[in-house]
Design goal:
This protein has 291 residues and is mainly alpha-helical. It is built from 17 helices and no strands.
Amino acid sequence: MKKELATCYPLLGQVYTFDPIFIEKFPVFAQYDHVTRFHVNLSQLLPIIGEFGCDSVDNRDVISQFIKRLEQKIQQTMSERYEFIGIHEITEDLKTTWQLSDNARRLKHGVEELFKSAFKTKIRQGADPYQNIDRQMTMQDVEYFEAHDPFMENYLAQIDRLLVENEPHLFPDNYQTILLFTAAEIARQIEGSIAKCQFNRYGALQLDREYRQICAYLTNVAGWSAREKVARLGQIVALLNVETIEEAMEVWHNSKTMTTSSTTRTLSLPEVRKVLSLRADFPTVAIKSIE
């Protein structure tokens, strides 16, 4: 059992014999301890659960997995080696671990709730002005925006400040989860704004530049895994940055072969038509006729 505890959670590698808390919570094991010398100290686990459960939303997954493995090991060991202990008694006493595990699983959603309350609304509000940018641009507009960013630089700076403020309060793995949530929400908000705009070729070129800014920032703060969260947005930007309907079809078919991630879906034909309809210079009849 010591070996199992150490394997599940290295910080619990040093395991001692049970104490009054264990006797109270697991009486069937305590009852036979003087005969079997079966020493398990689950009380070592209780302070950890209390710490994580009361003061933070951090690392629930590790706790939940640890408790589940411990529960399975206890059931297996006791049923195989100590047949005189009824399985019903074991199950009853393990309800405590099940309750702890259930609590840990519920609390792991705390990171998502934190994102919704502290990040999501601000990301959405920051993206609202994006749809007001005129996408019927000239080459002079594109050149001007290269020197005077109309939106994206400030938007990403706002998000970065938000992340920096919250990073000290999160464990690294949960901070990484927040980063991926952020990437997905940025993509969702920008896609929603794009759907309300009408583009010409130069407007699409500016959009491509902004998409590259997003990718560069997210890769810098969250690594390559963030790219997957904006992959759908990338498909939309690529479709808008074509010269002809025929080129759009080629881009779309190529995306089908290049999209290998199980979580990244290629745009459907109706979605392709909808995206291409955002190009004001593409004939509606030609868009409807594509197959």
